[in-house]
Amino acid sequence: MGQCVTKCKNPTSSLGSKSGDKENSSKSHHKKGGSGGGGGGGHKEEPSIPCSKAPSELSNGTKALEVTVETPVIPTVMGEPPKDEFPDGDGLSMLCIEELFCCYKDEQEDAILEEGMERFCNDLCVDPAEFRVLVLAWKFQAATMCKFTRKEFVEGCKAIQADSLKGICSRFPCMLQEAQGEESFKDLYRFTFQFGLDAEEGQRSLQREIAIALWRLVFTQDTPAILQHWLDFLAENPSGIRGISRDTWNMFLNFTQAIGPDLSNYSEDEAWPSLFDTFVEWELERRKKEEEQALMAKEEGGRCTETECSPTTDRLETEGSRGSQTWGGH
């Protein structure tokens, strides 16, 4: 900007000097004409043709004073990005967001893939398999696991108001708190199902192992009492299920909110998925067996008589003398 001001000022002095030269030549021309008129009365003085314009004008008709008027220049603060970096007026540097994306994007595809995602998480000091990464993917509205497209990344950074690694890290507490809200968690929960699908293969249900991992992950902050028993049921797989449908996934959240830990208010007459009926039967049977085993252990403990379970005084003394012989020899 300093060079622009200099270039505007320098032409003024140079153009001014040229105007002065022409003015001097005009004065000398007029003097010659005056002396000729005084010497010869018969000679008709011809009107002199001005060789130059007034001192205040240049040869092209531009006034010299007008050149000194500088073109207004909008000052730029040092370190401030150009205005086109803030198309939304939100104070974010779009250039920084794009550069951050390019740091991790794949060489062949315009997206951050598994390798880049791992480096991205490492730089954020988070584990790719932890809850914070799931919440970040939710805010970015990522369509597939282990992948951020350019649009998802840019729009996601704008959504959380961050344009750097430090900025993203600083938003984690707010995002985690937001995820605890009832409506927000419901949205996160439903997003998680879609996030776990393989969109390229056109999957419509989650694989059982992936569903178990995602259920454990999405309930990180607020774990239902029945969750572990549900996951044990799926792992044991008594009904031979291979995948979890969207309806089953969504209804399980309602199940955890409506049914108590003891399952006493569960009714098969309600519109629950059939898999839930199987689970409740399995869980009640499991609990019944645990109670029977606990009762048997208690009864066996009660049968223990003083003679069978308590060593006699003579036996204690004998064992004590053996011990003294063993350790007393040293």
Notable characteristics:
330 residues; 14 helices; mainly alpha; two-stranded antiparallel ribbon; disordered N terminus
List the helices and strands and how they pair.
Layout: H1 2-39, H2 64-67, H3 94-104, E1 111-112, H4 114-123, H5 131-140, E2 148-149, H6 150-160, H7 165-179, H8 182-196, E3 206-207, H9 208-218, H10 227-236, E4 243-244, H11 246-258, H12 274-303, H13 306-309, H14 313-328
Helix pairs in contact: 3-6, 5-6, 5-7, 5-8, 8-9, 8-11, 9-10
Overview of the structural elements:
60% of the residues lie in helices and 2% in strands. The chain is built from 14 helices and 4 strands. The strands form 2 sheets. It has a two-stranded antiparallel ribbon with strand order 1-2. It has a two-stranded antiparallel ribbon with strand order 3-4. Helix 5 packs across helix 7, helix 8 (182-196) runs antiparallel to helix 9 (208-218) and helix 8 runs antiparallel to helix 11.
